[in-house]
Structures are given as structure tokens and as C-alpha cells.
Design goal:
six-stranded mixed beta sheet; 454 residues; seven-stranded mixed beta sheet; alpha/beta
């Protein structure tokens, strides 16, 4: 499998990298394990200083790193720079809070003293996707490192420059050699890494098939996993919603990262009383989206990350139309250099239609009319996925009650779904299990150890 950077804005190869062989991989694993034996005993104050250094490097070089992200996977440069800044935030969060979160928890029992402590496990393997090349890695690495673990990164094969840049950031920040290493390997080599006795756990952000494969491999050798998989997030608009604000947010929520986000709003479920108004304004704004070179700060929608993904997107739209969906705007590949697709809205999307059943990873919004509030919640839950969700209404008390009925890992009321270092992130159903970030995330990869003293 080729590991190379291809600029999706023009389809040209930027750089090709040699894949590591088994001997190289095993040597890195051994070195990383040796680093763990020392790192697990390092004081929080020292780990904090290194993590603060990483945050400073990210902020100081955000423009350069942003260009790397845009070059490799095509997101608009303004969003790429914002992603780097967000990585600095998660580094700061765990630098400031890890020691408190992982402090011994005293629990009164029949013992003279009993408490819970949180000990590191060792090497944690991260299998990460291309869509947020920095953020997905830093939201894993910051808590894992602060907990005293060490990291192996198997990044997506189309973002090797990002993968190596992250390794260098941790090195420059002062972290000991080999506590964070990148493995330039293909997907077929992941199971061999998981099977290595010195690798203790794995986390994956990516597709449902990839998640199942990693979970299966880890299950065979009884190793802990956290999976953050696909999503087909509902964006529910009730009749008392602020329609103008909802529509404006809907554009961003669907097109963020060129529509290639697991928590992007994908199914826009609108009650019939306000459906026509929402549809008209939604189409009007979608038609105004600025498509172009992602390095241009004014660009709002750039290319799809790879040509095979563009072909898959075209096929999903084509099959949906064949199943009865109606194209309200967009709907096809743009005839220009690179991997571009028009900003698209599909209506008349019924159960059984690909756009209803599948995750669509690209700038294609699915617009669905609901009879009423109850029907809207039913449609929202009529999905194999359960990652995020958004609910739009002026009645906050009602929204809180409805939040309990929505089958997802998060419900954002009158706002766009996003991840925040202070809040847990993850899904249910086919969107995966376990949680990342917040105090919940850092405890996923520790030994929660009971200590009982007579």
C-alpha cells in the first residue's frame, strides 16, 4: 500500500514515503516500551511542562501546520489553522487538569483505608483517520501521555506529513525519546501491532468496517479498545425554532471540513409546519457557498480528500436519486482539476434510500419532512448510527426532555455539534463505544485499581 501525500486540490503527488517493515515496527515497539518504563514514573509537574510546550509550538507554528493539513486532505485553510489551535487547547486542558482528575479517590468502606488509584497501562496504539489529521491525534495523545502511557500512531496513509509532524512536535516539546512514535504502515499491518505483547490497548477513529476489524483483533487477545466510528447526525428543527439562525448554522454544520466529519449534520429533519420556509432558505444559502482552492482564505468548500472517496460520493447520490430522492441543488462532480463536488441538498429521501440509510461523507445534505415533533424524534432515531445530534427549538425545557429520547452520544440544543476537551465525546450503536476527552476520556486507558487496607 502506498503511503503518499496527494494534493486533492489538483490530484498531484506531493511526496511518497517508504513503508516500515516488520523489523522496523518491532524495533519501534521495543523502544516505546522501554520509554514507558521510565515515563510512567515521571512527575505530573514535568509532564505538564512538556505538554504546555507542545501547546506553545502548535500556536507558534499554526499557519505552517495548517498548510500541511490543507495540502494533504484539502480542508479550507482557515479551518485547518483553527484545528491546530484546538489541538493546543486540548494540550492545555490535560496539562492543567490531569493530575487532579487522576488523583487517588478515597472511598469509605469496612477497611481502615480504601481508595482507587489510576495507573498507566503501557503502549496504546491509535489508528487515526485523515479528516482531522491533527485534532484526532492530539485528543488521543494528550490524555494518554499525561496518564503515564506511551503512544504509537498508525495514521491514515494519505496524511503521512501530518503524522511525522506530530511526532516531531512532541520531540521538540521535550518529551523523552520514543514516548510518541509514528508507524508508517498500511492497514493490513495493524493486526500484527495489536498482537504484540507489549502493546496493551488500541483506539480507532474511522469507518465502521475498520472499527470492527480492530475490535475483532483486540478481542482475540483481550485488549481494551475505544472506537469512534461513523455518524449520520440528525439536525432536528421544530416549529418554534429560530429558522434563520438554524439555516445559517445548518450550512456550516453540513459543510464543515468539506462535509467530511463524523459529527457533521447529515440528516436535516424539519417538521412540516416550517419545512417549506427552511427548505427555501437552506437552498438559497447553499447555492451561495464559495467553492475553490482550499489555500484561499475566502474558500468555504474545498475538495474531497481522495478521488476514490469522490467516486463513492457520486455513487451514493446517483443511487439515492434512482431510489426517488430529488436534487434541490448541486448533485454532481465539478469539472475542474482536483476532487471537487458541488454543495448538494437532497429532498424526498425515504427509508431504504442510500442517503437515508448510509453515512454520506461529503457536502451532501439530506432534507427530510417530519409530521410533528414526535415523528421528528422517531426519524432521528431511525438510524444505525448514534454519534451526535442537534435540536432546534425555543422551548428549552422541552428540549431537555427530548434530549433524553434521542439516541446519540451528544445532543446540542440550538447549536452545532462539536467536540470540546472539557466534555466527553463518543457514540452508541454503530458509531462505536467508549469516550474520548474530558475526565471520562483520560480514564479509558488506565488501570482503575482498588487499594484496600485492613
Amino acid at each position: 500500500m502506498l503511503i503518499q501525500t496527494i494534493n486533492p486540490a489538483n490530484g498531484k503527488i506531493v511526496q511518497t514515503f517508504e513503508q516500515y517493515n516488520s523489523n522496523q515496527v518491532n524495533e519501534i515497539i521495543d523502544l516505546t516500551h522501554e520509554a514507558f518504563l521510565s515515563w510512567r514514573n515521571v512527575e505530573f509537574s514535568i509532564k505538564k511542562s512538556f505538554m504546555k510546550n507542545a501547546a506553545a509550538i502548535l500556536r507558534d507554528q499554526k499557519n505552517e501546520f495548517g498548510k500541511t493539513l490543507t495540502l494533504e486532505m484539502g480542508k479550507p485553510i482557515s479551518q485547518a489553522i483553527a484545528e491546530v489551535e484546538k489541538c493546543a487547547l486540548v494540550c492545555d486542558y490535560y496539562a492543567e487538569n490531569a493530575e487532579n482528575i487522576l488523583g487517588e479517590e478515597v472511598i469509605a468502606t469496612d477497611a481502615s483505608e480504601s481508595f482507587v488509584r489510576f495507573d498507566p497501562l503501557g503502549i496504546v496504539l491509535a489508528v487515526m483517520p485523515w479528516n482531522f489529521p491533527f485534532w484526532q491525534v492530539f485528543r488521543f495523545a494528550a490524555p494518554v501521555l499525561m496518564a503515564g502511557n506511551v503512544c504509537l500512531l498508525k495514521h491514515a496513509s494519505n496524511v503521512p506529513m501530518s503524522a511525522l509532524a506530530i511526532e516531531e512536535i512532541f520531540s521538540q516539546a521535550g518529551f523523552p525519546q520514543n514516548v510518541f512514535r509514528t508507524l508508517l504502515i498500511g492497514s493490513s499491518e495493524v493486526e500484527e501491532v495489536i498482537n504484540h505483547p507489549k502493546v496493551k490497548a488500541a483506539t480507532l477513529t474511522g469507518s465502521e468496517p475498520a472499527g470492527k476489524k480492530v475490535a475483532e483483533s483486540c478481542g482475540k487477545v483481550l485488549k481494551k479498545t475505544v472506537l469512534e466510528l461513523g455518524g449520520s447526525d440528525p439536525f432536528i428543527v421544530l416549529e418554534d425554532a429560530d429558522i434563520d439562525t438554524a439555516v445559517k448554522t445548518a450550512i456550516t454544520a453540513r459543510l464543515i471540513n468539506n462535509g467530511q466529519s463524523c459529527i457533521a449534520a447529515k440528516r436535516f429533519i424539519v417538521v412540516k409546519k416550517v419545512y417549506d420556509e427552511f427548505e427555501k432558505k437552506f437552498v438559497e444559502l447553499m447555492n451561495k457557498v464559495k467553492i475553490g482552492d482550499p489555500m484561499n482564505p475566502e474558500t468555504e468548500l474545498g475538495p474531497i480528500a481522495r478521488e476514490d472517496l469522490l467516486s463513492e460520493l457520486e455513487d451514493q447520490v446517483k443511487r439515492s436519486v434512482q431510489s426517488g430522492a430529488k436534487i434541490l441543488c448541486g448533485g454532481k462532480r465539478i469539472a475542474r482539476e482536483g476532487f471537487y463536488f458541488e454543495a448538494t441538498i437532497l429532498a424526498n429521501v425515504l427509508p431504504g434510500t442510500p442517503a437515508y440509510e448510509e453515512e454520506i461523507f461529503g457536502p451532501v445534505a439530506t432534507l427530510i419532512k417530519a409530521v410533528d415533533e414526535e415523528d421528528a424524534i422517531r426519524i432521528a432515531n431511525d438510524s444505525q448510527f448514534g454519534l451526535g445530534s442537534a435540536l432546534w427549538t425555543s422551548n428549552i425545557e422541552k428540549a431537555k426532555q427530548l434530549a433524553a429520547k434521542i439516541e446519540s452520544g451528544s445532543v446540542f440544543i440550538n447549536g452545532m455539534v462539536k467536540s470540546d476537551p472539557r466534555l466527553p465525546f463518543g457514540g452508541i450503536k454503530n458509531s462505536g463505544y467508549g469516550r474520548e476527552i474530558s475526565h471520562y476520556g483520560i480514564k479509558e486507558f488506565v488501570n482503575i485499581k482498588t487499594v484496600w487496607i485492613k
